[in-house]
Input
Amino acid sequence: MIKGITTAIIWYIGENPGVSSTAICHQFPEQRHSVTSALVRLTKNGTLKRSKDSIYRYTLAPGVATPAPPEMEEVIANPHKPNRQAAIVKAMTLESKCLYYRAATEWQKAWDLTGNMSERTEITRRINRCNAKAFHPAQCSYAGIAIARYVG
Output
């Protein structure tokens, strides 16, 4: 499970400006209610800007820098696990770009480098989710452009 959902949301929006709230909730399905309340809180405190269109789209407010990926904080704190952390960061980035086959491969690399059973369980969920999204038609929004991914 991602620690610091607020940092993860800010990172995700920084990487995908103009992303809808629905897409953000799909990125963090286990924490859907936390995502919704974090979006409201971040908009009220001025960290995020929300469009006034029919679909709320979020961008970082001017002057707000995109933070490092959430897992990079662990890399600094745990220098003995850089390969696992690098695989996690790469998998999250690929997932945000709707490259689910490649993301599942990176999640598998992270799983191989993890000894903790609770972390393996979480990574297994992410692998299964990537595989399911890769096999079924889905809409993906990357950089404000709707992309249809059909694998058949």
